Amino acid sequence: MTAEAVLLVGHGGVPKDAPRELVTELKQLEKARRGTAEPPSAREVELDRTLREWPRNERNDPYRAGLLRAAEALGARVAPVEVGVAFNEFCAPSIQDAIDRFVAHGVKRVRVISVMVTPGGNHSEIDIPEELAAARTRHPGISIDYLWPVDLDLLADFFARLLEQPSGDGSNPGS
Using CA atoms, how far apart are residues 116 and 149, in angstroms rounded to an integer? Predict the structure, then answer.
């Protein structure tokens, strides 16, 4: 592994075959704790782990599969830099776990990119920076850079390139 890595962070989705009552219970526990200084309860931690570690495949979690394909495509463009993925919620690995894995393999600099690119989202503006602050505390010798917010002109250029594509019907999500 190289001394530098890129971490793509996605939202994370609930697998289609996971029991909805688990998600409901987790969200209720998170909501009750929000705004307090209390750490997550043992039950909240258990539910989070259960959902994050739920067996995944392309059919029950197409979002995860898509982010993995995007990371693979990015990896081909930035090699030899290692590219990994992490998820804000519902899916493993968490941001903490992904950074811990990089550090364990000798990475000294992690550049973090959220695929949630527009301003105004709690995950990109609050959750991810909090997770990265915790990771910096745990790994003080590691440079962790958050490449957000995305320059809106750069984003507009990306959207303009999408408009140049021959099909906009979603029939070719893999390329």
Answer: 9
pLDDT tens digits, one per residue of 125-138: 999 999 999 999 99
Go through 26-58 and write b for each residue having 16 or more CB atoms within 10 A of its CB, e for each that does not.
beebeeeeeeeeeeeeeebeebbeebbebebee
Burial of 6 per CB tally in 10 Å (0-12, 13-18, 19+): buried
Give the helix/strand (H/E) hosting 33: helix 20-33
pLDDT at 2: 73
Domains in the chain, start-ordered, CATH in brackets?
4-16+61-163 (3.40.50.1400), 19-53 (no CATH)
Please state whether the predicted TM-score (pTM) of the whole model is above 0.85: yes
> Tell me: the pLDDT tens digits for 19-32?
999 999 999 999 99
Strand pairing report for 109-114 and 4-10:
parallel
